[in-house]
TrEMBL record:
Cross-referenced SUPFAM superfamilies: Ankyrin repeat
InterPro entries to which the protein is assigned, alphabetical: Ankyrin_rpt (IPR002110), Ankyrin_rpt-contain_sf (IPR036770)
Protein name: Ankyrin repeat protein PA3287 isoform X3
ANK repeat spans: 35-67, 69-101
Keywords of the record: ANK repeat, Repeat
Lineage: Eukaryota, Metazoa, Spiralia, Lophotrochozoa, Mollusca
Signal peptide: none
Pfam families per UniProt: Ank, Ank_2
Gene that this polypeptide is encoded by: 106073424
Source organism of the structure: Biomphalaria glabrata
Length: 213
């Protein structure tokens, strides 16, 4: 007879029904798996919002850290950009400023995501500067040559070819802006400290997307 599925495996599989059954049978919602991650961290990382709610309802610690990385569930959700999970965690008093093993907070990770920053701005957080995010290895700074090489890979349509050809006429900053739009890097179009005031003005204003259950 096969051994029953552990709660961390069930959460990782996104199996809400099995997770619910395990919790009803007395499974510990804070029991770390072999990789050191808590069930809530796993659910937060993969964006399983209903499982996140279920685990919290059954006593999962929203601020428990994984072994090794010391990431909290909020770190995981911010890293992956899962807005609905972030909303649930913050509603349950997740610690915005708890640091991981490298001294980075969920706010730092969220600073690299336009799509989720509104939740953190509404909580009164100040967006971490681009230079600091680079030093933390949260984002990478691309040279103009690297950006051009990335754009050179976009040969899959006439529109992409036109985009590639037009970049030859742009300044470094214009090219950075284009790669920001094309590759989804919200920081690529932002220069260093001289543009920080504009960065703060543009990206510290809350702007919410509403989810319906």
């Amino acid at each position: 007879m096969a051994a029953p599925m552990s709660i961390d495996v069930a959460v990782g599989a996104g199996d809400h029904k099995v997770v619910e059954q395990l919790l009803k049978s007395g499974a510990d919602p804070n029991l770390r798996g072999a990789d050191g991650m808590t069930p809530l961290a796993i659910a937060s990382f993969w964006g399983y919002d209903t499982i996140v709610q279920l685990l919290i309802k059954n006593g999962a610690d929203v601020n428990s850290s994984n072994k090794g990385t010391l990431w909290t569930p909020l770190h995981c959700a911010a890293f992956q950009g899962h807005g609905k999970v972030i909303m649930i965690l913050l509603e349950n008093k997740a610690d915005l400023f708890k640091a991981d093993a490298q001294g980075r907070t969920a706010v730092d990770f969220a600073s690299a995501h336009d799509s989720i920053w509104a939740f953190f701005a509404a909580a009164g957080c100040k967006r971490t500067q681009k230079e600091a995010l680079i030093k933390m290895n949260i984002v990478q700074k691309s040279t103009t040559e690297e950006i051009s090489n990335q754009l050179g890979l976009l040969n899959f349509s006439n529109l992409d070819q036109k985009l590639q050809n037009e970049t030859t006429h742009f300044s470094d900053q214009q090219t950075n802006n284009m790669i920001a739009l094309t590759m989804g890097d919200v920081l690529a179009g932002v220069e260093d400290s001289k543009d920080q005031a504009e960065w703060d003005t543009r990206y510290n204003k809350p702007s919410f997307t509403v989810w319906n259950n």
